[in-house]
Design a protein that fits this description.
The protein contains 27 helices and 14 strands. This is EAL domain-containing protein.
Length: about 675
């Protein structure tokens, strides 16, 4: 027997033993049901492994690229586990051949094992490029968002690496679109929400972004050298850096959204102190009747068009959108004399937006002011800008002149006085809780009460609408909500026998505080002992955040929720459908700004009719019509085919509880109820 024949015999024996070894390996058993699975993936019997030693490297490489592709598609074991299995097999073969003193064969085994790992790495590398498509499918809808722009860059990488394009994507992290965004006001505005952590947040995002481009540069080198193990390893690092960058940006956006208006005006205040830059503040007021996703698309379109107009004019800017207003802070980065900003605002930006708004069924008016005009009023600057929301003008566009700035100042002083008064009343606990009846089919059928805050003054009582926004600006809504909950808990004995339920309004961010959650649970339990249900009124703004606390209260503590002011903002039907299906939202309240217009515009009637049909489809009944102020409005509403209750001055104004009891009697008849017990 010659040496070659003897070597083959030894290798056959080793291959048979390897079969047993592989079948008992824990990682092997984790991904393969039996040895037949292994055969179906690799394409040969384990006892034929020795044949690999006689194959050319390229043939082995090509074969195991196919094996790796099948392995990824069928089992998706982590590449590190694949390496362990290959290394284990190579080690077992090496142990055996070294005992037989076949050194040349041992060296060949090690070499072929590296070829096999590199081939499988190539398959994994190109398969993992598909993850970019998955990430892109989850990208924000805004095509100009920083995350979307960088995902487009990743897609360009995939196209280049898969040879679908010869255009090399940008490798320099200082030259890509995302780097440009890091210099924009939008990024600065998001950082405003981080307070003293601003520099650290900036550094985290900058370093994540730099790492992405560095890893891409490494990958290009490794692919060029056909070193797919390192290419795949660094692609994993690149992808992880993308996820980190994405998470950092989303954390910033979420943090900013929690107190969007406050951070926006803080940023405006900060920028207005920079003398070498030219800043203008623009308030675009929208008169609209909002409904479902269509209106959201209209507002999003307006926002995008504003930013596009600014970009075309080489201006930078940021937006803050509220229910019926878009506020814009825009900047001329170069303070260029070539750009007549007042002319741009009136003749280009607003003229275009006015037309676009009209096509979307909305009316718009814009008020603009040069922030330099407020330099003489440093303490009232932000208050004056807020007053633009209430500034009366007969024109579609008006640039506030220096002569009219004094009027803004006087309005701001009055507003600050109201804010200070309301804040002190809350601190001193001198606010009072009134109750407004929710009326059933019969005029005297009081089915529920809504608790409303009033501030006592020398002239009477100040309605909450006059000061709530100031408490929001000062982060005092949680304190106000807690005050109302405590005050209602003092009325539980009196409420028994009057109505089946009582409604209170809770500000969206208050649900983030455990103190409010526990207080609501305690109030609900106390009311239930007096046969009264608690109904918590929420607004669509809650949909922008975490709804899990609301769902928890509904599911675990049987607290009913009413969606207030529906139709006033950007109604999210998908969220509403989900909450209705989970029986969280049980009552819908139509915004009073719609109801008051129902006898003046047939289109408003059609909008309200559509809302009632949506509510009926979702089994949300009853519907409460707010601001019913005349018999004519009531008669118009009663033409709708829906179960409705009514609330408004036509029936009664908010009153102290003892006055309501005197008026309606301590044994109010209850033929109907707002929510089922």
């Amino acid at each position: 027997m010659n040496n070659s024949t003897m070597t083959i015999g030894i290798l056959k024996s080793i291959s048979f033993k390897l079969t047993t070894k592989l079948a008992s390996h824990p990682l092997f058993n984790q991904y393969f049901q039996n040895i037949n699975d292994f055969i179906s993936i690799t394409g040969f019997e384990s006892n034929e492994l020795f044949n690999l030693l006689e194959q050319p490297e390229q043939k082995i490489f090509d074969h195991f690229v196919v094996v790796g592709d099948s392995l990824y598609e069928k089992y998706q074991p982590p590449f590190v586990d694949v390496v362990k299995i290959v290394d284990f097999a190579a080690s077992e073969i090496n142990k055996a051949v070294r005992k037989q003193k076949l050194k040349a064969t041992a060296d060949m085994v090690n070499k072929q094992a590296e070829v096999i790992k590199n081939a499988i790495a190539k398959a994994y590398f190109y398969r993992s490029l598909d993850n970019v498509r998955l990430l892109a499918s989850q990208s924000p809808e805004n095509p100009n968002s920083p995350l979307t722009l960088h995902l487009h860059w990743l897609e360009e990488i995939v196209a280049y690496l898969t040879k679908k394009t010869k255009v090399l994507p940008e490798t320099n992290h200082l030259e890509c679109h995302f780097a440009e965004w890091l210099k924009k006001m939008e990024f600065e505005l998001l950082l405003q929400s981080t307070g003293e952590d601003k520099d650290a947040q900036h550094a985290r995002i900058y370093l994540s972004h730099r790492k992405i481009h560095q890893e891409f540069t490494y990958i290009l080198t490794f692919v060029h050298n056909s070193d797919y193990e390192l290419a795949f390893s660094h692609w994993s690092l690149l992808y992880q850096a993308v996820l980190e960058l994405r998470q950092n940006i989303q954390n910033l956006q979420l943090l900013y959204k929690n107190h969007e208006e406050r951070y926006f005006f803080e940023y405006v205040d900060e920028k207005s102190d920079i003398d070498e830059q030219l800043y203008y503040f623009l308030s675009i007021r929208l008169a609209k009747w909002a409904l479902s996703g269509k209106n959201t698309e209209n507002i999003d379109q307006l926002n995008l068009k504003i930013l596009e107009c600014l970009s075309d004019a080489k201006l930078d800017g940021v937006l803050f959108t509220s229910d019926n207003e878009i506020r814009v802070l825009l900047q001329n980065p170069d303070n260029s004399e070539d750009i007549d900003i007042p002319h741009f605002l009136e003749e280009k930006l607003h003229a275009f937006l006015f037309k676009l708004a009209k096509e979307s069924g909305m009316k718009s008016r814009a008020i603009a002011i040069n922030l330099n005009a407020l330099n003489n009023y440093p303490k009232q600057k932000i208050s004056m800008l807020r007053q633009l929301s209430f500034y009366k003008t007969k024109h579609n566009f008006e640039l506030i002149t220096q002569q009219k700035v004094e009027l803004l100042y006087q309005s701001a002083i009055e507003a600050e006085s109201v804010a200070a008064f309301a804040s002190k009343a809350l601190d001193d606990r001198t606010l009072e809780v009134f109750f407004q009846p929710i009326i059933g089919v019969q005029k005297n059928d009081m089915v529920s009460l809504e608790a409303l805050v009033r501030a006592p003054t020398n002239e009477g009582y100040l309605a909450a609408e006059a000061f709530l926004q100031y408490l929001v600006n000062e982060d005092k809504m949680m304190a106000l909500d807690h005050f109302v909950i405590q005050r209602i808990s003092q009325y539980t004995n009196q409420l028994e026998g009057i109505v089946d339920s009582v409604s209170i309004n809770i500000y969206p961010t208050s649900f983030q505080h455990e103190e409010i959650i526990n207080a609501l649970i305690s109030l609900s339990e106390e009311l239930q002992r007096h046969t009264v249900s608690l109904v918590v009124e929420i607004t669509e703004q809650l949909f922008m955040g975490d709804t899990s606390p609301v769902e928890y209260l509904a599911r675990e503590h049987n607290i009913a929720f009413s969606l207030d002011d529906f139709g006033s903002g950007y109604s999210n039907l998908f969220q509403l459908i989900g909450l209705a299906e989970r029986e969280v939202v049980k009552v819908l309240k139509i915004d009073g700004s719609l109801v008051r217009q129902i006898d003046k515009d047939d289109k408003v009637f059609e909008v309200i009719e559509t809302i009632t049909k949506i509510a009926n489809t979702l089994s949300i009944t009853p519907i409460v019509m707010e601001y019913v102020e005349s018999e004519h409005i009531l008669n118009k509403l009663q033409c709708l085919d829906a179960k409705m209750y009514f609330q408004g001055y036509f029936f009664d104004r908010p009153l102290p509880l003892d006055q309501l009891i005197k008026k309606y009697g301590s044994a109010n008849r209850r033929d109907a109820s707002l929510v089922e017990h």
